[in-house]
Amino acid sequence: MTFELGTDGPRVIVAGVDGSDTSMRAGAYAWGLARRNDSRLILVHVSPVSSISTLTPGGATALLEAADEIAREIRDELQQAIERGPAVRHELVQERGDAATVLARIADDNRADMVIVGASMQAGHRLIGSVAVRLVRAGRWPVTVVP
């Protein structure tokens, strides 16, 4: 095994944020890690689309507007964090789709060194697998799950 010199710590961190308490803690943890390591931070908000196709056009519009509102709130919280503390090279990506699939694609596309997500609070994820479990099973990057 050969080690590279001068590459301590992650250079690119991808963090999933959906507005839940655990995801916001994951975002804060990722922010601090990126600040300490001078890493690039990509905060990803994924709006689920699985139920949109079964809704009426008005219902789908309302669901999409709610997802956009959550993304705006996350962006506002980020702006407040930026004003309070040291700057971090970051970007907020908002997409629609399956959270694990989108996070994996963005992590791969940006050659992420790690992925950070909040622990799932949904009981059903114990049976079908949470986003975190699916990312760990992908096995392409270290995944940190923040409680």
From TrEMBL:
The entry assigns this protein to a family as follows: Belongs to the universal stress protein A family.
The record's section on Pfam families has: Usp
What the entry lists under InterPro entries is as follows: Rossmann-like_a/b/a_fold, Universal_stress_UspA, UspA
Q: What is this protein called?
A: Universal stress protein
Every UspA domain range: 11-147
